[in-house]
Amino acid sequence: MRLVGENVEVGVYKTREAQRLADEQELDLVEISPKAIPPVCKIIDYKKFLYEQKKRDKVLKSKATKVIVKEIRFGPNTDEHDYEFKKKHAIKFLEEGAKLKAYVFFKGRSIIYKDQGQILLLKLAQELEELGKVEQMPKLEGKRMIMFIAPKKK
I need a labelling partner for 153 at 20 to 30 A (CA). Which of 13, 16, 22, 83 fits? Predict the structure, then answer.
């Protein structure tokens, strides 16, 4: 096997010899690349290696951005005042960097006003054009017409 690492002369060793070197240093012999010919091993403190790897993963995970989805619900016959009020909330959500899920909920026979719901969502998309871009155009799913808007990068 090929042996690499600190305080070891890099080279090809027999397994017993590599294990003896690891035992002398009171460290572990860890196989890094088993598919290589010959396999690559390293003499390290395995517990310390696992600890540092967990620490690295934790830092990477904390830096990853979490996508927040905020919802706004309209009815097919939403009044102008209610629409403006909900639009203000939508603006706030997009400025905070959250995705927006705007939908029109059709109750009972109000499903006959599908076109009004679509017009309402398209109007919202047009008015929020400078803050976000439409990821999914209005689409009817069951009793809901859903549209997604993602915030624009600054």
Answer: 83
Per-residue confidence band for 29, with pLDDT thresholds at 50, 70 and 90: confident
Question: Would you state the structure tokens that stand for residue 69, as one six-digit string?
Answer: 């989805």
As assigned by CATH, the class of the 69-151 domain is alpha beta
Q: Assess if CATH 3.10.20.80 describes domain 2-61.
A: yes
- The mean pLDDT value of the chain amounts to 88
Domain(s) labelled CATH 3.30.110.10 in the chain stretch across 69-151
Statement: residue 101 has pLDDT above 90: yes
**pTM to 2 decimal places:** 0.58
Residue span(s) of the chain under CATH 3.10.20.80 come to 2-61
